[in-house]
Amino acid sequence: MKTVLVTGGTGLVGQGIKSISLHFQNQLEFIFISSKQFDLTKSEQVEKMFETHKPNYIIHLAACVGGLFKNMNNKVEMLEKNLLLNYNVIHYSHVYKVEKLIACLSTCIFPNNIPSYPVTEEMLHDGPPHSSNDAYAYAKRMIEIHCKAYRENFGDEFICVSPTNIYGPHDNFNLEDGHVLPVLIHRCFLAKQSKQKFIIRGTGAPLRQFIFSEDVGLAIVKILLTENVPDNIILSVPESQEISIAEIGNMIAKNFDYQDHIVFDNSYSDGQFKKTVSNKRLLTLFPDFKFISVQDGIQRTIQWFLENKNIARI
């Protein structure tokens, strides 16, 4: 049986992989690693991780991440931590001769000014990312360059995947550092508790493609087990399922029966308005892939949050 070591294993996508891992228990043994076990910014800690677990495969999810406002206000941290940990994991995956590495990027690192949509994998380096997350984006883009260099020089099977906006149970619900969907869930919950307005920062106009964490996890494991896959694959719901932040806010409020109390605070930045991507490459590999609807995904995420407020990242 092959061993799969998952960095960032206690995070959102790591938990998504854990949720679907039972479907592969006869093929794969998963080891989920957290930052409490190994500091991936330190090379000696990464070597120790490889020596301890001797994995056949690596799924590299670990990252210094946050929402729009963390990206804008902590650029040095976002750049340096991600450069260090990504370098170490990729370098030592080669040194320890792992059979396959899948490294997680993000579609938020793609160019800001796109001449025409949808965005495809080939556009990754066609221009600068949005200024709000440029430090994080350039650090993540270096993963693709690093993996490509190892493929070209040594034939290593190092592959990148680029998910769109991921959400689900075990997300980061912190009001300042979390991504938009879990933050809105937390904010709506607090607003209803205190009988205050449910405030959505910005105009609500930006459009996003939200993908449930278990769908991301399933896609990554299927890619891991598939031979001769492309070197960079966008993981996303179809373009037709792109949805505005305002619509997401309304769905969340409806689950709390609080939709008549929404207020948009236009004093806050909207960030990038649109970043529609194509999932054609993913569906070419797996034409029958079924995505969890955003309505069902939001309901499941809210249910998890309400049942786990004592352990949730808030």
Describe the structure.
This protein starts with a strand and ends in a 7-residue tail after the last helix. It has helices at residues 12-20, 43-53, 68-73, 75-95, 134-154, 180-194, 213-224, 245-255, 280-285, 294-307; strands spanning 2-7, 28-32, 57-60, 100-104, 158-163, 165-167, 198-201, 207-208, 210-212, 232-235, 243-244, 262-265. Helices cover 40% and strands 15% of the residues. The chain has a domain at 2-168 and 209-241 and 276-292: Rossmann fold, CATH 3.40.50.720. The chain is an alpha/beta fold and 314 residues long. It contains 10 helices and 12 strands. The strands form 4 sheets. The protein has a 6-stranded parallel β-sheet, with helices on both faces. Strands 6-9 form a two-stranded parallel sheet. It has a two-stranded parallel sheet with strand order 7-12.
State the fourth-level CATH superfamily of the domain at 2-168 and 209-241 and 276-292. NAD(P)-binding Rossmann-like Domain
> What is the CA–CA distance across the termini?
38 Å
Structural class: alpha/beta
Q: What can be said about the biggest beta sheet?
A: 6 strands, parallel
Order of strands, widest sheet = 2-1-3-4-5-10
Topology order in helix (H) and strand (E) letters: EHEHEHHEHEEHEEEHEEHEHH
Quantity of strands, as a count: 12
Helical content band? 40-55%
Q: Round the mean pLDDT to the nearest integer and report it.
A: 94
Number of helices: 10
What is the correct CATH architecture of the domain at 2-168 and 209-241 and 276-292?
A: 3-Layer(aba) Sandwich
For this structure, the CATH topology of the domain at 2-168 and 209-241 and 276-292 is: Rossmann fold
